[in-house]
């Protein structure tokens, strides 16, 4: 969520600089590994930045048939003929560019790639990044303020969102939970207990009933369900 918000803020800052946005799609001719595809893209992008001042944000899409696609949003026009003259050198075939008429719709369209379940081959990859001379919003600069997040920050021993915005650094009197997943579990339980005090008691009862074999977890249509055997 923070990454998607940072992406959206960055695009909207580009929009403030120039009311015209352009949507590019770069497709490699062949299917490459992620490492090889990123190397080709970075070499290609370095050349475009040096020769044309290419700038914007890049979003990586993993296509089932064509491998990696690189979607780019820019806030100025660039000579497509000059870009086409160099794209073949780095393995790019089809290039598509069009004017964005609805910025909100374009942002929503690109954000769906950031919301998809991350494939195993994309582990550790940056799904989006800004490049060139544009004003950026970093992911770490985005602060989320919800009741659950407040509990999570407190459990991890971090300052509140308000204190962080005001630049206040309080002296730590205790060591918070360093493991994020354990802290998240504690925050979720604390959040549920804040409006459902009997939550833990019901969970304990449910576990006892479950382990005693008094309930069947299989769906009626599954092979392991006693109802399926009876029918």
Topology, pairings included?
Elements (H helix, E strand, L loop, with lengths): L1 H16 L3 E8 L5 H19 L3 E8 L3 E8 L5 H8 L4 E9 L2 H13 L12 E4 L15 H9 L5 H5 L14 H16 L3 H13 L14 H5 L1
Antiparallel strand pairs: 1-3, 1-4, 2-3, 2-5
Cα Rg: 25 Å
Number of strands: 5
Q: What is the makeup of the main sheet?
A: 5 strands, antiparallel
Strand-pairing-aware structural class: alpha+beta
* Uncertain residue segments: 225-231
Strand order of the largest sheet: 4-1-3-2-5
Strand content: 15-25%
What is the succession of H and E elements? HEHEEHEHEHHHHH
Q: How far do the termini sit from each other?
A: 46 Å
Shape: elongated
Number of helices: 9
Kindly state the percentage of residues in helix.
40-55%
Quick check: average pLDDT? Answer: 79
List keywords for this structure.
231 residues; alpha+beta; 5-stranded antiparallel sheet; 16% strand
Characterization of the model:
Helices cover 45% and strands 16% of the residues. The chain has 9 helices and 5 strands, in the order H-E-H-E-E-H-E-H-E-H-H-H-H-H. The chain has helices at 2-17, 34-52, 80-87, 103-115, 147-155, 161-165, 180-195, 199-211, 226-230; strands at 21-28, 56-63, 67-74, 92-100, 128-131. A 5-stranded antiparallel beta sheet has the order 4-1-3-2-5, with helices on both faces. The two termini are 46 Å apart.
Q: How would you briefly describe this protein structure?
A:
The chain has 231 residues and is an alpha+beta fold.
């Amino acid at each position: 969520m923070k990454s998607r918000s940072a992406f959206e803020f960055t695009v909207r800052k580009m929009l403030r600089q120039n009311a015209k946005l352009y949507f590019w799609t770069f497709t490699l001719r062949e299917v490459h590994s992620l490492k090889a595809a990123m190397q080709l893209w970075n070499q290609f992008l370095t050349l475009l930045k040096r020769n044309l001042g290419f700038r914007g944000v890049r979003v990586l899409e993993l296509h089932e048939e064509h491998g990696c696609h690189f979607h780019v949003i820019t806030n100025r026009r660039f000579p497509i003929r000059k870009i086409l003259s160099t794209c073949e050198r780095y393995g790019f075939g089809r290039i598509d560019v069009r004017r964005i008429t609805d910025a909100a719709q374009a942002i929503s369209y690109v954000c769906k790639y950031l919301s998809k379940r991350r494939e195993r081959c994309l582990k550790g990859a940056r799904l989006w990044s800004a490049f060139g001379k544009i004003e950026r919003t970093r992911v770490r600069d985005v602060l989320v303020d919800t009741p659950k997040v407040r509990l999570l920050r407190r459990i991890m021993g971090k300052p509140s969102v308000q204190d962080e915005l005001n630049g206040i650094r309080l002296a730590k009197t205790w060591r918070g939970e360093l493991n994020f997943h354990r802290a998240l579990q504690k925050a979720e339980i604390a959040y549920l207990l804040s409006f459902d005090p009997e939550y833990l008691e019901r969970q304990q009862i449910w576990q006892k009933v479950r382990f005693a074999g008094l309930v069947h977890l299989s769906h009626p249509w599954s092979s392991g369900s006693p109802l399926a055997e009876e029918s």
